[in-house]
Amino acid sequence: xxxxxxxxxxxxxxxTGLAVMGRNLARNFARxxxxxxxxxxxxxxxxxxxxxxxxxxxxxxxxxxKDFVAALERPRRLVIMVKAGEPTDAVIxxxxxxxxxxxxxxxxxxxxxxxxxxxxxxxxxxxxxxxGTGISGGEEGALHGPSIMPGxxxxxxxxxxxxxxxxxxxxxxxxxxTTHIGRDGAGHFVKMVHNGIEYADMQLIAEAYHLLRAVAxxxxxxxxxTFRSWNTGRLDSYLIEITAEVLAxxxxxxxxxxxxxxxxxxxQKGTGRWTVQIALDLxxxxxxxAEAVFARSLSGHAELRKASRGLPGPTxxxxxxxxxxxxxxxxxxxxxxxxxxxxxxxxxxxxxxSEKYDWNIDLGAVASIWRAGCIIRAAFLDRIRExxxxxxxxxxxxxxxxxxxxxxxxxxxxxxxxxxxxxxxxPTPGFSAALAYYDALRAERLPAALTQxxxxxxxxHTYRRTDREGSFHTLWGGDRSETGTG
Length: 486
Hints:
Elements: E1 13-16, H1 20-31, E2 36-39, H2 43-53, E3 59-61, H3 65-70, E4 77-80, H4 86-95, E5 104-107, H5 113-124, E6 129-136, H6 138-144, E7 147-150, H7 154-167, H8 186-214, H9 220-230, H10 238-248, H11 258-261, H12 271-282, H13 287-300, H14 302-308, H15 321-357, H16 363-369, H17 381-390, H18 401-424, H19 429-442, H20 448-459, E8 471-474, E9 482-485
Parallel strand pairs: 1-2, 1-4, 2-3, 4-5, 5-6
Antiparallel strand pairs: 6-7, 8-9
Helix pairs in contact: 1-6, 8-12, 8-13, 8-15, 9-10, 12-13, 13-19, 15-18, 15-19, 16-17
């Protein structure tokens, strides 16, 4: 019964690391009828959770590591919710010797997927399953239902999956927002890309706000109303919803719009950078995500920005009311088209990672579990799921007829917005990069041919021809004859 304390060997799941995310995840399990063993390095947090939330379910509070492990039924399922990196390794080192073959360790932190691959290999050799699990939704999601992205072995999901499916967010059709992503580091890889898309999404929304304020001349309150309107249509998403709330908020101390009293220096925890770094390693262009990461970095260079404010450039002139309304409609088109590109790039990176590491990731399933619970949840993820379900070999979202038609219909307004931003000196790295990516994909020929010619000239790097097979090199001095192997 709720409010009671369980006994040794009765807990279906255990959580160690009871900061906000771990505490809320433990409460979520308990609320769904699971007996939950609790452990924290500082025992007071364990007892505080039981004292405050004990009525929500059955908890088994423990202090010593051996008592925590003893509280779990076999196969033991142990969730680690501590900081990524060395703290995670330290917890694994503490608990692994106490476990037995077939037991499961679940890392719910924001670990780098390569660390997860290393840990999974080491523990597999000991007969222990290691499940690197991406969890999105923040502290509210952890409590009320997050999107959960578990990797690891198929056998581990047989044991763990039913529990995760109970506590995960549910999409509108009732589907749990979790699935087995793939072996070893697949779950944390997909979570990394999710966060990269999140960076891009937030940057695009910020650029839309900037344009509506600087070019259309809208107040934050009016922009909030505009975003609320957009949230009733194809841009329906959690991020658009909360953006309207942030823009409508007034600072209690000054009465000014909240957005005007916040320093314009955006911080980041690192997963966006990882997405870009790994994309470079994989040779996948994620220019929208990269520009979002760099935009945050640039915002933080306060002294550089201060020294550059006197540089020449245009000043913005607010539009008439009618022109502003028309421009706002164009910005909505640009935002939607750029958003499609961001997801296109993200899913391309997941595809490349899946192929390199032999994960066999189901892209339709990924889109499905992002429909609720996570930060990037949005109405159009249903359509992304449908596109990949209809054609699992889809080259990109832009190859889907519906998305291609929509982005084609938006492109004139998209181009107008990017041009207007350039004319009026409003930085739009996200919109501009997305448009450049779109145009690069649709181009018959790219200037890469010249780039490769330059590389052959100064470094004898060779080139391939359009008219026959093989690698070729031009002897650029003298008669400039060509050598090659066909």
